[in-house]
Write a structure and sequence with these properties.
- The complex is a heterodimer of chains A (about 180) and B (about 350).
- Chain A is of the alpha+beta class and about 180 residues long.
- Chain A has helices at about 1-10, 15-25, 65-70, 105-110, 135-145, 150-160, 165, and strands spanning about 50, 75-85, 90-95, 115-120, 135.
- Helix content of chain A is about 35%, strand content about 15%.
- In chain A, the strands form two sheets. Chain A has a three-stranded antiparallel beta sheet. A two-stranded antiparallel sheet of chain A has the order 1-4.
- In chain A, a hairpin with a 5-residue loop joins strand 2 and strand 3 (about 90-95).
- The longest helix of chain A is centred in the N-terminal third of the chain and has 15 residues, at about 15-25.
- The radius of gyration of chain A is 26 Å and the shape is elongated.
- Chain B is globular.
- Chain B starts with a helix and ends with a helix.
- Chain B is mainly alpha-helical and about 350 residues long.
- Chain B contains twelve helices and no strands.
- The chains are: A alpha+beta (about 180), B mainly alpha (about 350).
- The interface between A and B is medium-sized, with 15 and 15 residues.
Chain lengths: ~180, ~350
């Protein structure tokens, strides 16, 4: 045993083994992704830039309940509403300060109307702060750009659940269950 | 008057042209050695290495060189300015002048001196002065530690390196590098690598230590000493240190090739089998062998982590030195009985 150990040391067996490994690795293809040229598709459910969902008729799904703003831990959502004709609630302004958002996704889960989503778009860096202050028009445009069609439907199927379903109340209690179709 | 000057000029001009060619090629080699190193180590770490400047980053060395030229040259206020300025010059001088005695192929050298081997050893230890001066004059603790470590390391490993080459000197009976190459042709195997395998391994380890390459890069251990003895250098002075390190790597690789791998020649048993190989110019074989050794330096760097300082010293004095002495004794016996 001792002789074998000495022989191992003299003939640098371990070092030669290590060098064989590094040589093999040199011939194997590199795992580097050349980012700006070689982009990677964000996986489904990725929490990127915000968007406001549209109904089939093109208007925003948001009803201005303010639950997203209430649950937001960084308080980056502001919703301003007023009373419209026939005692309806009108969303005047819906604003997100994207620079303050921590991308927790609570707003998506809190929303009972599937109105707000986090899209898979993540390359929106900018030199000005103003460009990253999202008002309602911008957020609706984001939906058209990144979530329109099949993608948005799939998103809600897999990544949106109203909190009320996770924490069930007594059966005799009146509970809002969202208007899932 | 012309009769006096003409012969001098006739001798001087080819000499200067030769020097210009050697220096130019060496500097170009240094530029691309950095690129080669980054690529090799990158691929060994399953990365790509430089890819941005030019196709596959082929112009990266020029970008780096330009950057070093135009960077601000900072001299610390507390530094010993005279020594601080002198140190990189000494280091570069030592590295560059070793190139002068290396025969690249049969008859192509700047100076054919009879103690070429000793000259290179002397120059590589002179380079340690550049390191020590840089470490001391910077007036920084990191540089100073780097300088101290380098001097201790170079002294220890120079002994092993010198002794590992004694076997070669015994077998060839000369210290002239061209003569050593020619002496290897007298044997059918054509390389001292086979009878001097032990000496070759000791030489390689000592060469790593002499050039401050990775398993022994304690003088510039970036994880503890930032950059070691040249922390305070910037701009082109830093560039000189960087370039000289690559030049001394080239010198050590050339030494290994000349002393153990038969220089620009191929072993007779290969050329006898395939005589067509004799038509290939010797410089090509020389460069292939040299670049293999340079690759070996990179390969070792990508594989082996740094030694601890006491391990470094005990390896040098307790393992390599006795082995080198054993090698000398064995070689002498071999030479006495076989001739």
């Amino acid at each position: 045993m001792a002789i074998r150990d000495i022989a191992k040391k003299v003939f640098l067996v371990e070092i030669i083994k290590g060098m064989a490994l590094t040589f093999r690795m040199m011939l194997s293809p590199a795992v580097t992704r050349q980012y700006p040229e070689e982009k990677r598709e964000a996986s489904p459910g990725y929490r990127g830039l915000h968007a406001l969902a549209r109904k089939e008729d093109g208007s925003a799904r948001c009803v201005g309940c303010g639950l997203c703003a209430a649950i937001c831990p960084s308080r980056c959502i502001d919703v301003y509403t007023s009373e419209g004709p026939n005692q309806t609630k009108v969303v005047d302004r819906y604003e997100i300060e994207v620079l303050r958002c921590v991308y927790c996704g609570f707003c998506v889960e809190a929303c009972p109307f599937r109105a707000i989503v986090l899209t898979g778009h993540f390359e929106y860096s900018d030199y000005s702060r103003e460009a990253l202050f999202m008002d309602m028009d911008k957020l609706l445009a984001n939906w058209d750009k990144y979530m329109a069609g099949r993608k948005g439907v799939e998103y809600f199927k897999h990544f949106w659940r109203p909190l009320s379903e996770d924490f069930k109340a007594h059966d005799d209690q009146a509970v809002f269950r969202g208007n899932r179709k | 008057m012309d009769a006096v000057i003409a012969p001098v000029v006739m001798r001087l001009v080819p000499m200067l042209v030769k020097m210009a060619v050697v220096i130019g090629v060496t500097m170009l080699h240094v530029l691309y050695a950095t690129y080669f190193e980054r690529k090799v180590i990158g691929h060994m770490q399953v990365r790509l290495g430089p890819m941005r400047v030019g196709p596959h980053g082929i112009l990266q060395p020029f970008a780096d060189g330009l950057k070093l030229f135009f960077k601000e040259d900072i001299i610390p206020a507390e530094a010993d300015k005279m020594v601080f300025r002198l140190a990189p010059v000494v280091f570069t001088f030592a590295a560059m002048s070793s190139i002068a005695v290396i025969p690249f192929y049969d008859g192509f050298f700047i100076a054919d001196i009879n103690v070429g081997l000793l000259f290179i050893l002397a120059m590589s230890s002179l380079g340690a002065y550049g390191v020590v001066m840089a470490g001391w004059s910077s007036n920084s603790i990191y540089s100073f530690l780097g300088g101290l470590r380098s001097s201790a390391q170079v002294i220890s490993y120079e002994v092993c390196m010198g002794l590992s080459l004694v076997g070669v000197i015994l077998l060839s009976g000369s210290m002239n590098l061209s003569q050593i190459v020619k002496a290897q042709q007298h044997y059918w195997y054509g390389m001292f690598l086979f009878p001097q395998f032990l000496g070759y391994v000791i030489f390689l380890v000592a060469a790593c230590a002499e050039t401050n390459r990775t398993p022994f890069d304690l003088p510039e251990a970036e994880s503890e000493l930032v950059a070691g003895y040249f922390v305070e250098y910037s701009g082109m002075r830093f560039g000189l240190y960087f370039a000289s390190e690559y030049i001394s790597m080239l010198v050590m690789s050339s030494m290994a090739v000349l002393c153990f791998w038969g220089g620009w020649t191929l072993p007779p048993f290969i050329t006898n089998a395939v005589p067509a190989l004799l038509a290939v110019p010797g410089i090509i074989w020389f460069l292939i062998k040299v670049y293999f050794h340079i690759f070996l330096f990179y390969w070792i760097r990508a594989t082996i982590p740094r030694y601890r300082y006491d391990q470094l010293m005990s390896l040098g004095w307790k393992v390599l030195l006795p082995l080198a002495l054993v090698n000398i004794v064995l070689t002498s016996i071999l030479k006495y009985f076989i001739g």
